[in-house]
Write a structure and sequence with these properties.
The chain is mainly alpha-helical. The chain has one domain. It is built from six helices and no strands. The chain has helices at residues 5-35, 52-69, 73-92, 101-104, 107-122, 129-133. Helix 1 packs across helix 5, helix 2 runs antiparallel to helix 3 and helix 3 (73-92) packs antiparallel against helix 5 (107-122). The radius of gyration is 17 Å and the shape is globular.
């Protein structure tokens, strides 16, 4: 099967945008569960906003929203990557098996950390406020911040 590289290059910024949008949407659900109880997760009942978990929820909701629309993608992704790395080492690696996230339920934290790190370097892709701000055409949007 012959792969059309021109077609792949055309769709690359759109695929990046889809990855950014889906990642942000899923990430925001963690924050909305913590801050707004939607979806309801019992362990977040009575959460104090002025706590580490409350701060995490705010970063998840507001950072996720910025990523969702592709605004300030690189700096937001940088902050969220570090946040998820810290979350992994505080909440998961401290339970043991630091090099085996499957054993300490830290796989999502590690995956989010590296996805966000990727967005630092890749940018927002197509369909983003950043691509509009920097005047990138859809096929060049992958270089926008």
């Amino acid at each position: 099967m012959k792969i059309d590289n021109a077609l792949l290059e055309t769709w690359k910024p759109r695929a990046l945008a889809l990855l950014r949008i889906v990642t942000a949407y899923l990430f925001m659900a963690h924050g909305t569960a913590k801050l707004f109880g939607i979806p309801h997760i019992k362990m977040f009942d009575g959460l104090q906003l002025a706590s580490l978990v409350g701060l995490a929820g705010a970063l998840e909701v507001f950072g996720g929203a910025l990523l969702l629309i592709g605004l300030f993608t690189r700096p937001v992704a940088f902050v969220l990557s570090g946040f998820m790395a810290v979350a992994y080492f505080m909440a998961h690696a401290s339970q043991g098996h630091a090099l085996l996230p499957i054993l300490n339920q830290g796989e999502l934290a590690v995956l989010y950390s590296f996805l966000f790190l990727y967005f630092v370097f890749a940018g927002a892709g197509a369909w983003s406020v950043d691509s509009i701000r920097f005047g990138a055409t859809p096929h060049l949007a992958r270089s926008a911040s």
